[in-house]
Design brief:
five-stranded mixed β-sheet; 3 domains; 20 strands; six-stranded mixed β-sheet; alpha+beta; 444 residues
C-alpha cells in the first residue's frame, strides 16, 4: 500500500500524466474479461445447438430406430424411453410440411426449436392428438399462403431443429417401430414429401468440439447474422460490439490492445467452468429445498431473457422439453444432501405413482452424465417395468438380494439419476409435487 501511495504522489508531482495508465489498462482488461464471459453465456447454447446438428442432412427426416446405449456420448442425460426422429431445417426456401402417421395410443412428440434452443411449438400426443396429419412449418416473415385447415408452426429463425420422440414400450418392439418411424415425412409446401430415412443404430458421432480462442466468438457472430436474435438479446449484446462480438463482426479481426485480446481469450477458456459453477450454485439451492432433488425451472425451453438458464440447460440437458411436455427432476444427492455414490446403498420410494399422464422413468447416469454399463443391461426403470403402483426402487452397485426387479444398477463411483414425467399433471408442472428424498441405507 505504501508503494502504491508513493507512486501516486510521484505521479502528481510529475503532472499526473503517467500513473493512471496502468490502472486504466487493468480496468480495460477486466472489462474485456467480463464482457467475454457475458458473450460466452449467450453463445454457448447456440454453438452447442448448431454443432450437435452438424452431421444431419438439411431438410431430411432421419429416424433412429435404436435406444441410446452407454457408448453413445453425443448429449448428456439421454433418455432410454424413446426412439428419435431428427431434422435440421432451413426455411429460407419457403415453408416445409411434416406429415405424421397415425400413432394410436403410443406417446409421441415432435418438438420444434429455433436457433437459440427455444421451443417454438409441438406436434404430438399432448398437443395435436394421435391421428395422422400434415403440419406447416414457417420461417420468420414468410407470408406464403398455407392451405386452409393445415395447422402452422412458426419458427422465429430460419434455421430450426425438429426433434421427435416416440415411446418404446419394450426393446422387443423395435423391429415393428421401424415402419412407424418411416411414416413420418417431410417436404416443401406443395411438393412431394419424403419419408423419414430410418437408421437401425445410432450414428457413432463424437461430441461436438467448440472453437477455441476468438474463433468461438466468430462462429457465434456468424449464427447471429444468419439467424438474428430477438430484440431483447440484440440489445443485451450491443455493448459487446466494441470487442468484435455481434452480427457481421469478427472478434479475431477486430483491432484490440494485446491485454484486451488476451482477456477475451481467457474468458473463452474459463467460460465452461463459469457455467459449471452457475449450475452447481443453482443445484445447491434446489437440493436444499427439495430433499436432495434439483429441478429444471419453469422457463426451460421458453427462456425469454434468462440467458444464464439457457446456457445452464445446454450444459446439463440440451434440447430439453418445456415443462408442460416433460418435467425433469435431477438427483445427485440423497435426502440429507450427501452426494450419491456406488459405495453406498439407497432406496427411493414412491408412495403413489409419479404424476405423469403419458409415462415416467428413472434413469441412471455416471459422473459424466452418460449411461451406465451393467450386467442387466438396465439403464432405467419406470411404469412400463413396474406398473402404476407404489414402489421402492433400489439404487446401488451390487445386486440387492431378492430385489432384482426393482434394482437400478449404479456405477462404483459418483452417480446421478433423472426422473422424467412425460405429460405431467399441473401439480408437477407447477412444482407442487416433488418425489421423496433418496434414502441412504448404510450411511452413518
Amino acid at each position: 500500500m505504501r508503494g502504491l501511495v508513493a507512486a501516486v504522489v510521484a505521479a502528481v508531482a510529475m503532472g499526473g500524466a503517467a500513473a493512471p495508465a496502468p490502472a486504466l489498462a487493468a480496468s480495460a482488461e477486466q472489462r474485456a474479461y467480463r464482457a467475454g464471459l457475458s458473450a460466452y453465456v449467450h453463445a454457448y447454447p447456440v454453438l452447442m445447438h448448431r454443432l450437435s446438428q452438424r452431421t444431419f442432412p438439411t431438410n431430411t427426416l432421419v429416424g433412429i430406430n435404436a435406444l441410446t446405449k452407454p457408448a453413445d456420448r453425443l448429449i448428456v442425460l439421454p433418455n432410454v424411453d424413446t426412439v428419435y426422429t431428427v431434422a435440421k431445417l432451413d426455411l429460407r426456401g419457403g415453408p416445409l410440411v411434416v406429415h405424421v402417421p397415425a400413432v394410436g395410443d403410443r406417446y409421441f412428440e415432435l418438438q420444434l426449436m429455433d436457433a437459440y434452443t427455444n421451443v417454438a411449438g409441438y406436434i404430438g400426443t399432448r398437443t395435436t392428438g394421435p391421428g395422422p396429419g400434415d403440419y406447416a412449418i414457417v420461417g420468420p416473415g414468410d407470408a406464403t399462403p398455407i392451405p386452409a385447415g393445415m395447422p402452422v408452426l412458426h419458427s422465429p429463425t430460419m434455421d430450426a431443429l425438429l426433434l421427435g420422440r416416440t415411446l418404446v414400450r419394450s426393446p422387443d418392439e423395435l423391429p415393428a417401430l421401424k415402419e412407424l418411424l418411416a411414416g413420418y415425412a417431410l417436404g416443401p409446401l406443395g411438393g412431394e414429401l419424403t419419408p423419414s430415412l430410418v437408421l437401425d443404430e445410432r450414428p457413432r458421432t463424437p461430441p461436438p468440439t467448440l472453437p477455441t480462442g476468438l474463433a468461438f466468438f466468430d462462429l457465434f457472430n456468424q449464427i447471429l447474422a444468419e439467424d438474428p436474435p430477438t430484440a431483447a438479446e440484440a440489445q443485451a449484446l450491443a455493448p459487446l460490439a466494441r470487442y468484435g462480438i455481434g452480427p457481421g463482426l469478427s472478434a479475431s479481426a477486430t483491432q484490440q490492445p494485446p491485454a484486451v485480446r488476451a482477456a477475451l481469450e481467457r474468458a473463452v477458456r474459463d467460460g465452461r467452468r463459469y457455467l459449471d459453477r452457475l449450475v452447481e450454485q443453482r443445484r445447491r439451492r434446489a437440493i436444499r429445498a427439495n430433499a436432495g432433488w434439483g429441478a429444471f425451472e419453469p422457463k426451460v425451453g421458453a427462456f425469454g431473457t434468462d440467458w444464464k438458464l439457457r446456457a445452464m440447460t445446454a450444459v446439463i440437458g440440451l434440447w430439453a422439453n418445456t415443462p408442460d411436455e416433460a418435467v425433469y427432476l435431477i438427483g445427485a444427492n440423497d435426502s440429507k444432501g450427501r452426494p450419491l455414490t456406488g459405495r453406498h446403498r439407497y432406496a427411493l420410494t414412491f408412495r403413489t405413482p409419479p404424476p405423469a399422464q403419458a409415462f415416467w422413468s428413472l434413469t441412471m447416469y455416471d459422473q459424466k452424465l452418460g449411461l451406465v454399463e451393467n450386467p442387466l443391461g438396465r439403464q432405467a426403470l419406470g411404469d412400463r417395468d413396474l406398473g402404476r403402483r407404489p414402489v421402492t426402487i433400489r439404487l446401488q452397485h451390487d445386486a440387492p438380494k431378492g430385489r432384482t426387479a426393482t434394482w437400478l444398477p449404479a456405477p462404483r463411483g459418483p452417480f446421478t439419476v433423472a426422473l422424467r414425467l412425460y405429460v405431467p399433471t399441473r401439480a408437477a408442472v407447477e412444482g407442487r409435487w416433488r418425489p421423496a428424498g433418496i434414502r441412504c441405507l448404510d450411511c452413518r
